[in-house]
Design brief:
The protein is α/β, with parallel strands linked by helices. It has helices spanning 73-81, 128-135, 143-156, 172-184, 202-219, 230-236, 254-260, 266-292; strands at 5-15, 18-29, 48-49, 57-58, 63-66, 88-93, 96-100, 103-104, 113-116, 190-194, 222-227, 239-244, 247-253. Helix content is 35%, strand content 24%.
């Protein structure tokens, strides 16, 4: 297992009366190897359905963290980003300890991460351009480099034409792209997505996921997606981790977990699929009956 990337070693996080994460250990590699190359989970392999995981879990490119509300998904991302300290255990980046129990040893802006929050966290009093520029403020860039990155991020995310508008003056999909542009402008190694698509329609969500996949390929960053929706994981990620009550219940290729995983939310998704197929078959049968029925006089 390469040291490159994040490694969590027996990480726990407790809040008053709640244990959000319970001795989680895993490795999330940096970079973007190709599908089914080193680190990727091929269909039919690397499925681990377990009651509790204590050894290091090595996951592959573009990882989804899935599970019900309150299972520790967002806490997991905040720990990686350096926005929270672990109660126990340690977090390493490229083999160097960046967080330990009660300590942040490397601040967020020095971790090579960018985060898109569920509420997007846009500044309403700043223009689109101003929001992206604010994200670059901690990078200590030369003015020309900062301006170049700002322009490139706006163009890559397709919002250069609304750069002088305020967030309240653009559509929901454009607001999503603004949050994404602010994140990729810092040229992160890891893009952390904390359920940012919960408020957009399915068509917009599908387009955004496709755009993120294309950006990740061209800009060479790794995506870690927190979601309760297996469809998002299937569209964007190759591996998944199932959290429940702060414990890793399963880890492996997304396709594996879709096919045979017993953990939520995949079991519920398969049940929904069966219901949709059954409804479609019933509708088709009803249509045939109506077509063949004698015309009412």
């Amino acid at each position: 297992m390469s040291d490159s990337g994040f490694t969590l070693v027996s990480v726990s996080k407790e809040y008053p009366g709640t244990r959000a994460l319970d001795r989680v250990s895993m490795h999330i590699p940096a970079g973007r190897p190709g599908r089914n190359q080193s680190g990727a989970a091929a269909p039919g392999k690397n499925l681990r359905e377990i009651a509790s995981l204590r050894a290091i879990t090595d996951v592959g490119p573009h990882t989804a963290i899935l599970g019900p509300s309150g299972c520790g998904k967002s806490t997991f991302l905040r720990l990686l980003a350096g926005l929270e300290t672990p109660t126990a255990g340690s977090i390493l980046l490229d083999g160097q300890t960046v967080s330990a129990a009660g300590q942040i040893l490397r601040p967020p802006h020095q971790r090579g991460v960018a985060m898109v929050f569920q509420d997007l966290a846009l500044w309403p009093n700043l223009t689109v351009r101003g929001n992206v520029r604010l994200g670059l403020a901690g990078q200590r860039l030369h003015r020309d480099d900062s301006g170049r990155r700002l322009r490139e991020a706006l163009e890559l995310c397709g919002i250069a034409d609304v750069a002088d508008r305020f967030p309240g003056q653009i559509s929901g999909g454009q607001q999503q792209r603004l949050a994404l542009a602010r994140a990729i402008a810092v040229q992160p190694r890891f893009l952390l997505l904390d359920e940012p698509f919960s408020g957009v329609d399915l068509a917009t969500k599908s387009r955004l996921l496709a755009e993120i996949a294309a950006l990740a390929a061209s800009c060479h960053f790794q995506v870690i997606l927190v979601s309760h929706d297996p469809c998002e994981a299937l569209e964007l990620c190759e591996t998944a981790i199932i959290l429940d009550q702060g414990v890793v219940r399963a880890a492996g290729g997304v396709l594996d977990l879709f096919a045979v995983g017993t953990s939520e939310p995949f079991a519920s998704f398969r049940k929904l699929q069966r219901g949709i197929r059954l409804r479609g078959a019933c509708d088709q049968e009803a249509a045939i009956r109506n077509r063949d029925a004698p015309e009412a006089r």
